[in-house]
Design brief:
Radius of gyration: 28 Å
Largest sheet: 12 strands, mixed
Mean pLDDT: 87
CATH architecture of the largest domain: Alpha-Beta Complex
C-alpha cells in the first residue's frame, strides 16, 4: 500500500477520481504551492516548477533533470544526516528531494501514487504539517470541481439504486437490466488493483452522492472502474434485475415537494393558459411519505374513489446539501442527483359528496386527490449530479400498456430546475434527501378522459436515468 493511501485514504481516493490530465495538474499545482514554503530553491528546480505550472507537462529531458535533482538533493540530505548537520538544512534538502521526486513521477510515466506519496512526505517536513496537507487537498478539490475538465462530459453516468437481495437492503450501480452490488464491486476492485475502497455500511445513497456524500469520491472511482471492466469480470459481480427487488432510492425524504403547471402544454390541455415566467411563480404542493411506492410495486386504485386515477411522469430532483436562499446560478450545486417520479393523481376525488360547497373545495379536492397511499412511485435509481449534466435536456416518456401517452423533454419547463430550487430556498430550508418533482408535460389521461384501471402497467421514463415501471391493482386485491 502506498503511503498516501495508508495515511490519508480519503485524499488518495479523491486524487484517483480525477481525470489523468486533471490529476497531473493537481500534482503540479500542489508542488508549486508547497515549493513556496521551501528556502534556497535552485534555478533549475524553479524552472521545472514554472514549466509544469504553465504547460502541465514535461519533456523527457526535463523529467530526467527532475530525477537528477532529486538524486542530488537526496545525496546531500544523507550526507548531512551522517555528519549530524544542521537539522533545518537537512530537512530542507529532504523536502527539495521530495518536491523533485513528485514532479518527476507525476510527469514521467510513474504511477500517480508515487508522486502523491512524495508530496505527502514533503508536507511532513514543513512546520505546519496540517496546513500543508490541507493545501494539497485544496488543489485536488479545485481540480475535481474544475469545469475545464477535458473528459468529465464523457465520463459514464453514475446511477445508484437500492434493492433487496436475500432479505438484505443493498446499494448498487444501476444498469437498466441488471445491478452491480457496490460492496461486491469494491471487493473485486481490491482483488484486481490491490487497493481498498472504504464504503459506508448503510444503504443511504446520499453517502455516495455529491455534493457532500462522504463516500462520493470512492463511489465515483468504483463506477469508472466498473465501466471499464471486461465482460468476464463484470459477469461475476452483476445481478440480473429479475433476481432482485428495487426499492425507492430515497426511502424517507424530509419533504416531497411537487410542481403544478410547470409545462405550458400541460396547462393548456387542462384548460388553462400558462403565464410567462416573469409574470408568475411556481405552484408547489406536497405529498406525504405514505404515497411513496417502490419500482415494480403496485399503484393501488383506492376503493373510496376508483374511477379517475391519472398518471404524471416527472423529473425528480434529490437535494444533497442544506439549501437556503441560494441564487439560481448556484442552485444546481446543491443537487445530489435526479430520479423519475410518477405523480399519480385522483382527478375527481370528492370527500363527503353531500357536503355544503365552500369557496376552496375545488383546490382541496385536487390536493387530497394526490395523497392516496402508493400515489408517488419513485425510482428506479438516482443519476448522480455533476456539472456536465444539464437537467433541461432529459427526454420524458410515459406509456400505459405499451401505448405512448407522454413524450416531451425537460427543456419545455416554464421554470427550469435551477430556478425551482432557488425559488423554494427563499422561504423553505431544503435539506439533504428532500425530493423536488418538477411537474409533468402534456399527455395526462384526464385530457382525453382515459384513466388507469386494475391490470394496467405504467412505465415512466426519463432518458439517461431509467424507467420506472408499476402495475396497477385495486384496493383489496
Amino acid at each position: 500500500m502506498h503511503l498516501l493511501e495508508y495515511e490519508s485514504p480519503g485524499l488518495a481516493v479523491r486524487i484517483e477520481a480525477l481525470t489523468p490530465a486533471n490529476r497531473r495538474e493537481a500534482i503540479a499545482k500542489a508542488a508549486s504551492a508547497l515549493g513556496e514554503h521551501l528556502t534556497d530553491l535552485e534555478p533549475r528546480i524553479l524552472q521545472l516548477l514554472d514549466v509544469v505550472g504553465r504547460d502541465n507537462s514535461l519533456s523527457t529531458e526535463q523529467v530526467a533533470e527532475a530525477k537528477a535533482y532529486a538524486d542530488d538533493a537526496d545525496a546531500r540530505y544523507f550526507a548531512l544526516e551522517e555528519q549530524g548537520g544542521d537539522e533545518f538544512v537537512r530537512r530542507n534538502w529532504f523536502a527539495k528531494a521530495r518536491l523533485a521526486t513528485a514532479i518527476a513521477n507525476g510527469f514521467g510515466g510513474a504511477s500517480w501514487q508515487d508522486a502523491a506519496d512524495a508530496l505527502y512526505e514533503l508536507c511532513f517536513t514543513l512546520d505546519d504539517k496540517a496546513a500543508a496537507i490541507a493545501l494539497v487537498s485544496e488543489q485536488v478539490d479545485a481540480m475535481s470541481k474544475s469545469k475545464c475538465s477535458r473528459t468529465e462530459s464523457r465520463r459514464p453516468a453514475m446511477r445508484l439504486c437500492r434493492f433487496t437481495l436475500d432479505e438484505m437492503n443493498l446499494t448498487g450501480f444501476f444498469a437498466d437490466d441488471r445491478v452491480i452490488p457496490i460492496h461486491q464491486a469494491a471487493d473485486a476492485y481490491e482483488e484486481q488493483t490491490g487497493r481498498e475502497i472504504l464504503l459506508p455500511a448503510t444503504d443511504d445513497l446520499l453517502d455516495l452522492l455529491p455534493p457532500d456524500g462522504e463516500a462520493h469520491d470512492a463511489a465515483r472511482v468504483l463506477a469508472d472502474w466498473v465501466e471499464r471492466l471486461d465482460p468476464v469480470t463484470l459477469d461475476g459481480i452483476e445481478v440480473p434485475l429479475g433476481e432482485i427487488a428495487l426499492l425507492v432510492p430515497i426511502p424517507d425524504p424530509g419533504k416531497i415537494l411537487l410542481l403544478a403547471g410547470n409545462y405550458a402544454k400541460h396547462v393548456a390541455e387542462r384548460g388553462g393558459t400558462a403565464a410567462e415566467r416573469d409574470e408568475t411563480f411556481p405552484y408547489v404542493f406536497m405529498k406525504p411519505n405514505t404515497t411513496l411506492t417502490h419500482p415494480g410495486g403496485p399503484v393501488v386504485i383506492p376503493r373510496v374513489s376508483p374511477d379517475h386515477v391519472d398518471w404524471e411522469c416527472e423529473l425528480g430532483v434529490v437535494i444533497g446539501r442544506v439549501c437556503r436562499d441560494v441564487a439560481e446560478a448556484d442552485a444546481l450545486g446543491y443537487v445530489a442527483g435526479y430520479t423519475v417520479v410518477n405523480d399519480i393523481s385522483d382527478r375527481k376525488f370528492t370527500p363527503n359528496p353531500g357536503r355544503k360547497i365552500r369557496e376552496r373545495d375545488k383546490f382541496f379536492d385536487w390536493q387530497h386527490g394526490k395523497w392516496h397511499d402508493t400515489f408517488c412511485p419513485v425510482g428506479p435509481c438516482v443519476l448522480s449530479a455533476h456539472h456536465a449534466i444539464d437537467p433541461q435536456t432529459f427526454p420524458i416518456r410515459l406509456t400505459v400498456n405499451g401505448e405512448v401517452k407522454q413524450d416531451a423533454t425537460t427543456a419545455q419547463m416554464v421554470f427550469p430546475v435551477a430556478a425551482v430550487v432557488s425559488f423554494l430556498s427563499r422561504f423553505v430550508t431544503l435539506q439533504p434527501g428532500d425530493i423536488v418533482s418538477t411537474g409533468t408535460p402534456s399527455g395526462v389521461g384526464s385530457a382525453t378522459g382515459t384513466y388507469l384501471k386494475p391490470g394496467d402497467v405504467v412505465r415512466a421514463s426519463v432518458g439517461g436515468i431509467g424507467t420506472l415501471e408499476n402495475p396497477v391493482t385495486a384496493e383489496g386485491d
